[in-house]
Design goal:
Radius of gyration: 25 Å
Largest sheet: none
Structural class: mainly alpha
Number of strands: 0
Order of helices and strands: HHHHHHHHHHH
Oligomer: single chain
Shape: globular
Low-confidence stretches: none
């Protein structure tokens, strides 16, 4: 019976991995197929011409650059807003905490179309009321950043707030009693404890922004992002240049994940060596 359950568990794991990876393999394979359609069936021969055409597609390169610019801006602002919100919510109690928490979380539940339209209407109406043509009040990528931050910051807040649950508040009190200022406590005690959650939040915000479409579609003005460009190409006829770019993004993501895992294991070995050395030192003293 145990062997049967183990076999089912292995089978489930294999099927789950196939379910996750098969679309990526098919999409990547289409980048090397000598066919004008983004598919691997029928296979018409190996080619790398789609990568050269990708580089020559100025509109797609500009859309990709815009996407990275927006994603970086969203990640930075979301980390600042989300971390500050988590610290504030963690420091208060009662109905005010419940109210602030509910307001932050509610943005995640609102459909992206509503956020996009609301952001565009809010800022354009403000510009009309003030009678100004300042770029901030006109549709553009800056409004895409603000619209995305309005709900992505809540995701960062949840990650940081979860990390704060393991923080010992006594460390802050001890530091203050020893003469440290509140800014020193923040920089040297609280933020170092939150760095893993802040890093994870930045990564989540970055990739959430890259794949965003609904908010960007209504706030971008005349600018293109990658998701908007792909959507427009689907209507007019998509080519495997998109697959070529996707393949490169997958490779970059895998390399980054590999580097992160190597560094994590290296830090774990260093930490284990320090703990072992500390134990040996204690045993020697005894």
């Amino acid at each position: 019976m145990h062997r049967f359950r183990q076999t089912l568990a292995h089978l489930y794991m294999v099927l789950f991995l196939v379910f996750l990876l098969a679309p990526l393999v098919v999409m990547s394979g289409a980048a090397f197929n000598d066919s004008k359609l983004p598919s691997i069936v029928p296979w018409r021969g190996f080619t790398t011409m789609w990568f050269s055409e990708m580089v020559q597609d100025q509109r797609m390169m500009l859309a990709f650059a815009n996407t990275l610019w927006v994603a970086v801006a969203v990640a930075i602002i979301s980390v600042i807003v989300g971390t500050a919100s988590a610290i504030l919510i963690n420091s208060i109690a009662g109905k005010v905490r419940t109210l602030l928490y509910g307001l932050m979380i509610s943005t995640i539940l609102i459909p992206g179309v509503v956020i996009g339209i609301s952001t565009m209407i809010l800022w354009t109406k403000m510009g009309n009321a003030l009678g100004t043509e300042f770029f901030l009040f006109n549709p553009g990528l800056h409004l895409s950043v603000l619209g995305q931050v309005s709900y992505i910051a809540a995701m960062v807040m949840l990650l940081v707030l979860a990390r704060l649950q393991s923080f010992d508040a006594g460390l802050e009190e001890a530091a203050l009693d020893l003469g440290a200022s509140h800014s020193q406590v923040m920089r040297r005690i609280l933020l170092p404890h939150l760095y893993p959650a802040i890093g994870a939040g930045a990564a989540v915000a970055f990739f959430q922004s890259i794949e965003n479409f609904n908010v960007t579609q209504f706030t971008r003005g005349g600018a293109d992002t990658l998701t908007v460009y792909v959507f427009s190409q689907v209507r007019s006829g998509i080519t495997p240049t998109i697959n070529a770019l996707a393949f490169l993004l997958i490779c970059v993501t895998l390399v980054m994940a590999l580097v992160y895992e190597i560094n994590r294991r290296r830090r774990a070995r260093i930490e284990a060596a320090r703990e072992a050395e500390a134990r040996r030192a204690e045993e020697a003293m005894l």
